[in-house]
Design brief:
2 domains
């Protein structure tokens, strides 16, 4: 969010552009995520980045409940609690929490509750819940469509499934080719024409058949010991994985950021479904030990991935930097224009107009790491106000004339 995003243009009712994302771009011209309006009252009461991070954590945590309850019903209480804990510690959720706030946080509990309803024999409720996905992000209508295809495979629910598949597909196509271009200053869907299947940054371009894509697929299936492949629910991975693996932009397929969070409930629901399908083969004492072995292996796998994901940045790793950034940011007056990095920007957006350094916009203030090459042009033209822990705060007296 940005100060100029929180209200419409004076007297017009038209949303203001996001200076942080692109001074010419209204956010609905970037992604279709109207569900974010749900957070507006909370951000209004507490306009801080922490408000969004807490909301994201609560949304992701809410998805643990239906998956744990389903696992307990299929595997028994103890094994179900272990599997639910494995889901809660899964690397996809962990990366989403430690990276940044993203609207995909709404999709995770929606997918979890919808799939549990479908597995519980309530397809109507599953569709009702999953339909909200079309308000979260433009590509998630295809995930809804995939769920519709699964529902349509059963003769008694074929009509519902076909309507759901058609509705999800139409919703995504409408968002991408009609709604987003209508809000975009460039008249198109930027991720399709510039990002999407092509690399928006040549420095981050990769190969269509990059080995890292296979690594991602293996990493997704490993926490389930590949048992999830037995369930037809695994098909719900295809809409998201198709655009990610079909891209030459390597940030889309490396196992980082928020991209894998929405896949975690699909994988773990598919795992529970697979175990339910295997249950007749695991009857008796031998089957009991088999279930215990599977549960133990799942716990060990998820714990290993959790430790691997969190090893790079332990608790308190960035505290000195954070304290210095907060101290320098407090020196910037309200309603000023600021150029800074994407890690500092969320803490200034509630009271200033923020531009990313790479935009090289002429602003009154610049707060940047001294090692960032993007700050060098401003050092020559600005007054150094303060420095701390590798950060420098600059004031540009002639910003309005440049």
């Amino acid at each position: 969010m940005n100060r100029s995003n929180t209200c419409s243009r004076a007297g017009t009712g038209i949303p203001a552009p996001s200076t942080l994302r692109d001074p010419q771009l209204i956010l609905l011209g970037d992604h279709f995520h109207p569900i974010l309006v749900v957070l507006a009252p909370f951000y209004r009461l507490s306009p801080h980045a922490e408000t969004l991070l807490v909301a994201q954590a609560l949304l992701l945590a809410a998805s643990i409940f239906p998956i744990t309850r389903l696992a307990c019903a299929v595997m028994g209480t103890r094994a179900g609690l272990v599997l639910g804990s494995c889901y809660g510690l899964s690397w996809g959720l962990l990366n989403a929490i430690t990276f940044d706030f993203h609207e995909i946080a709404f999709a995770v509990p929606l997918v979890a509750f919808a799939l549990v309803e479908w597995l519980s024999g309530r397809p109507g409720r599953a569709v009702a819940i999953a339909s909200v996905l079309v308000l979260v992000k433009e590509d998630l209508g295809l995930t809804l469509a995939a769920l519709g295809v699964l529902i349509a495979l059963r003769p008694e629910t074929r009509r519902l499934g076909l309507l759901t598949a058609a509705g999800g597909t139409i919703a995504s196509l409408t968002a991408v080719f009609v709604v987003i271009p209508a809000f975009s200053a460039y008249g198109n869907y930027g991720y399709l024409s510039e990002g999407g299947l092509k690399a928006p940054d040549p420095a981050l371009a990769g190969q269509l058949f990059d080995p890292g894509k296979l690594h991602l697929v293996l990493l997704l299936l490993l926490p389930t010991l590949f048992l999830a492949l037995r369930s037809p629910l695994i098909l719900l991975l295809l809409p998201t994985l198709t655009w990610r693996l079909g891209s030459t932009y390597n940030l889309y397929w490396i196992p980082t950021f928020h991209y894998d969070a929405v896949l975690m409930p699909v994988l773990f629901c598919a795992l529970v479904h697979s175990l339910a399908l295997l249950r007749p083969r695991m009857a008796g004492r031998a089957g009991l030990w088999t279930r215990r072995a599977i549960t133990g292996a799942l716990a060990a796998t998820c714990l290993a991935l959790f430790v691997q994901s969190s090893a790079a940045d332990g608790p308190g790793h960035r505290r000195p930097f954070t304290a210095s950034a907060d101290r320098l940011a407090a020196l910037i007056p309200d309603n000023a224009t600021v150029s800074t990095t994407d890690t500092i920007a969320p803490h200034l957006t509630s009271r200033t107009d923020v531009y990313l350094l790479k935009a090289r916009h002429q602003t009154e203030w610049t707060l940047t790491p001294v090692t960032d090459p993007d700050h060098t042009a401003w050092v020559r033209a600005g007054d150094v106000i303060a420095q701390a822990d590798g950060l420098v705060l600059l004031h540009h007296q002639d910003a309005s004339q440049r």
